[in-house]
Amino acid sequence: MTSNHAGRPQARHVIAHFSDTHFVSPEDPLLYGVADSRAHLAELLAGLEDSGAAPEALLFTGDLADVGDAEAYRSLREVVEPAARRMGARVVWAMGNHDDRATLRRELTDETPSDAPYDHVLHLGGLRVVVLDSTVPGFHHGEVTPVQLAWLEDVLAEPAPEGTLLLMHHPPVPCLQDLAVAVELRDQQRLADVLRGTDVRGILAGHLHYSTSATFAGIPVSVASATCYTQDLRTPDRGTRGRDGAQAYNLVHVYDETVMHSVVPIGEHVTVGRSTVAADVRPTVVPTQRELVRAR
């Protein structure tokens, strides 16, 4: 494993974190008559592929389909799977409050349909990824049942070689919009009691339709923005306003000692300076401050 200028080893894992795709049936392609959720995700995936980032996995933290219908899941699969194959990335799905457990299993994973919580575990080398279903069928708030908590406690009882990332739709963070408080994750203390002191290095979530970060039980929380439409936090009186803009995903770099979450927004913009690093440049050769200023 090579090192950068600061002597830190390169990331062991590069992961792309998407959330809230809210796909709809191709027969009526505009979400709420406005946002083209399929086109937005396709654009974000194309930009990721063109960047050469080569993520090991594409993680989707819920609200995959807007109303949990089969046609929407099929459309999502048509967009994601070819891009994932070209990038050599594994695709990981998590449930959201707009999703349907049985239909998701049948259309996205080819599993036998079931209404049981969609909880599962996978490994990216020595990194463990735990997917926790925080949804309550028929409602939009989040909960984790005692049975799920017992399962999670059992999974985390033995640490993974490179630690664990926990994926869930409802983030265990305060909500900044008063009208959205009713759809928060409930009984968060019970989840905190299970997670505290474990090898969980990060909690990755969605649901809010804007990017934010916090800590929970001493663990960093990273919320990815939505790829369909986003919430405008400038709305007066802590109200809500969805907007067809500012869609994004997060690039997750997992290092030995830290995990970085970087927001990558949609769109192309005017270039303000550009530089490249030749493959044969020695990593120990660092430009002086004067050279950096002159290069600008």
Structural class: alpha/beta
**Which strand order do you get reading across the main beta sheet?**
4-5-6-7-9-8
Largest sheet: 6 strands, mixed
- Second CATH tier, the architecture: 4-Layer Sandwich
Q: Using the coordinates above, name the CATH class.
A: Alpha Beta
Using DSSP, what is the number of strands?
13
| Overall outline | globular
Mean pLDDT: 93
Counting structural domains, the number is 1
The residue fraction in helices comes out at 10-25%
Determine the CATH topology. Purple Acid Phosphatase, chain A, domain 2
Distance between the termini: 31 Å
Beta-strand fraction estimate = 15-25%
The CATH superfamily name is Metallo-dependent phosphatases
Number of helices: 6
Radius of gyration: 20 Å
Describe this structure as you would to a colleague:
This protein is α/β, with parallel strands linked by helices. It has a single domain (13-233, 240-271), classed as Purple Acid Phosphatase, chain A, domain 2 (4-Layer Sandwich), CATH 3.60.21. The protein has helices spanning 37-51, 70-87, 101-109, 146-155, 188-195, 289-295; strands spanning 13-18, 57-61, 90-94, 120-124, 127-131, 164-167, 200-205, 212-216, 219-223, 230-231, 242-243, 248-254, 259-265. The strands form three sheets. A six-stranded mixed beta sheet has the order 4-5-6-7-9-8, with no helix packed on it. Strands 3-2-1-12-13 form a five-stranded mixed beta sheet, with helices on one face. Strand 2 (57-61), helix 2 and strand 3 form a beta-alpha-beta unit. This is 3',5'-cyclic-nucleotide phosphodiesterase. GO terms for molecular function: cyclic-nucleotide phosphodiesterase activity; metal ion binding. It comes from Cellulomonas cellasea DSM 20118.
